[in-house]
Structure formats: C-alpha cells, structure tokens
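Ligand-bound model needed. magnesium ion.
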Amino acid sequence: MADIILVVNAGSSSIKFCGYEAVGAEPRPLLKGQVEGLFTEPHFKVANAAGDRTEENRWPSGTEIGHAGAIRYIAEFLRNHREGHRLVAVGHRVVHGGLEFDAPTLVDHAVLERLATLVPLAPLHQPHNLAPIRVLLEARPDVPQVACFDTAFHRSQPEAAQAFALPHEITARGVRRYGFHGLSYEYIASTLPQVAPQAAAGRTVVAHLGNGASMCALKAGRSVASTMGFTAVDGLPMGTRCGSLDPGVILYLIDALQMNARTVEDLIYKRSGLLGVSGLSSDMRVLLQSDDVRARFAVELFIYRIARELGSLAAALEGLDALVFTAGIGEHAPLVRDRVCRLAGWLGVALDPAANAVDGPRISTGESRVSAWVVPTNEELMIARHTLAATAGRI
Ligand SMILES: Nc1ncnc2c1ncn2[C@@H]1O[C@H](COP(=O)(O)OP(=O)(O)O)[C@@H](O)[C@H]1O
Ligand SMILES: CC(=O)OP(=O)(O)O
Ligand SMILES: [Mg+2]
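Prediction:
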C-alpha cells in the first residue's frame, strides 16, 4: 500500500492535480492530470509517472464546466483509481495568503475562515482554492491539508517593491503589493541551478505566461520585484484580465458609465485582456491561429507589455543576466518568445531561432550577453515538497 500525497492546483482556466508517493526527502510523482480550458474547450488528461497518457476526455467547443464541474470530475476519477493507495496528505495552491500567511500552513476550520476573508482580493482563484479544502475537511478530517501560497515567495522583496504610495494607515491595513505565481517562481529558482547555473546565481527575470501572466525579478534566486500587486489583476494583460490600469479609469467607469463595483470587477477580471481586446478568445492558441486584426492586436499588446515590464524589472535588478519563459504560453508559444527576445535586444538578448522553435531549453545564442531559456514550471512539485515538509512527523 503506497502512501500518497495529493496536490490540487486550481488556476483561473485549469485545475491541475498530481499524486506523489511520499517516500524519502523528495516526493515521487505517480500520476499527473488536469482539466484545462474550463470556460472554453474543457479537456481532461492524465499521464502516468513515465509521462504516458492514460486517460483523456474532451467536451465540445463552447462548453463551460467551470471549477466545480472539473473538481467533481477529478474526484470521481480519483475515487475509481485509489486502489493500492493510502491518502496521507493533501497540498493545495492557495493564491492569496495576505499579510498573515507567509509560509505553507496546515489548514483547520479557523485557518479556512481567515483565508476566506481574502476572497475579494482574488475572486477568480481563492473561492476555487478553498472549495476542495472545505469538502475534504468534512469528508476526511483525518487527512492533513496544507495551504501553499502564491504570495509567500515574494514577501522577501524590499519594502519599496511592496509599497504603494498611499498613506501609511492604508498600507498598514495590508494594502500593498503581494505578487503571485510564487510557487512557480520558487520552483524555477530551485531548478535553475541545474539548468543554468550562472543565471541562477545572477539577475534573472522569469516570465510566467499562462492564462494568468506575471513576471518576477530574481536576484540569486530570491524575489526582488514582480508585476502583480495587491491582486492578480495587476501587471501584464492576461487571458481575461486587463493588467495595469490607470486607477482613474475605475473612477471614470463608476462616475461616467454608472458601473458598480461588481460590474467593474467582472469587466477587469473576466471580460478584458486577450479576450476583451480580440473580441474572440482568451486562449493564445486560438489567437495565434487567427488572421483577425483584433486578434493580432491582442497578441501585439501582450508582447509589448511584456517587453516594457522586462525593462522595468531589469532596472529593479540593476542589470540583467538571464530571461526565463515558463507556463502555458511561455513554454509552448515560440512566436511570443521570439518577439519578446527581439524587443529585448537592447538589453543584450540575442535569440537563437532554431533553438526557440524546439522550445529550448536555451534559446539564446552562445554569444548572447543575456541568456534566454524555456524552463517548464512545476507548481505541483513545489506544493508536494511543502506539504511533505509541513506534515513531517504526522504522516
Ligand atoms: N501550444 C501552445 N501554444 C500557444 N499557447 C498555448 C499552447 N499551449 C497552451 N497555451 C496557452 O497557455 C495558456 C494556459 O496556460 P496555463 O499555464 O496552463 O494556465 P493557468 O493560468 O490556467 O494555469 C492559454 O492561453 C493557452 O492558450
Ligand atoms: C495568480 C494567477 O493569475 O494564477 P493563474 O495563472 O493560475 O490564473
Ligand atoms: Mg497556472
């Protein structure tokens, strides 16, 4: 009977899950699965430890199964495949830890209630991160659950990188820049010494380009700045989120267009970004295949903003040694990487187009002053490591 750690990673457009055998210091992956395209073209797939596809299901284009539908589907799959396994712990990605939670935390009912107060700060994620924790607390109170936060990795940033220029009493209430995708950046920082030792020790910008997208400046593996702020709507344009916006726009929407907080929330989180600009889709694959002018402009704007933020993060690092691409778009869209690297020529990035076409791992030329890389992220492994450490002695 193998002892299993289950990991659940609810993103904005996908739910990823992983089973790890809890043996020794490093969790050993047994199965990896996901439902992606929750609101566009849901696609369920599972692979075994060797990476071979073992299960697959597709829903018709235009189907919306959402997070609740996907969790039900995944739970049913896991119930049918639990033979020979003993569930000893569950690790969850929880997007917002606020001021209070800056490290992985065992969750009980009291912790869950405090995490629920952060729902307004991450409306696309936090409810879906907490829902499976709540269900399992009732159904399996014997199994420890660990919340691993997207915000925690960034708490090491200098004070100036975390502050808005707001009055002190507002800042003291926790209105500050938190940054997200921290589990992804922490994983990249942990694996970079093997992939690119010089980059790992130096000044690196990591671009996590998925349905949610952000960038992080790493100095010797520690976060010093990031593009996301108080919430995960800040920074780069994303699948359905607008990214950085002049706060005056919000006031204008309320005063002149008579929107209220909920309609503004819906606009900036769910109807903007690639979807809003293109009027076509939030899915980069669809946009890249389209000849539509607005679809092209959406991709253009995404790339332009990445290039601008790169300059800003390089300034925070006082120079740049390496650029790393990761997540759905970063790992699989050579065209986006090509365009970003060319716009970063002034910083010393020289692209190797042939290496870029096959997803790297190194996509810059040997002479490039700044090296560029494709490094697949693994938030699930990072969560499993934290879960193992946080439950040591209990499982
Ligand atoms: N082969 C591909 N080419 C371009 N974009 C891709 C490809 N595969 C996935 N993507 C894009 O990656 C994004 C989803 O990234 P992912 O990191 O899985 O998202 P999430 O934020 O939900 O975790 C989508 O925009 C999708 O279109
Ligand atoms: C924080 C965030 O945007 O996450 P995701 O990319 O999974 O939507
Ligand atoms: Mg994600």
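The mean pLDDT is 96.
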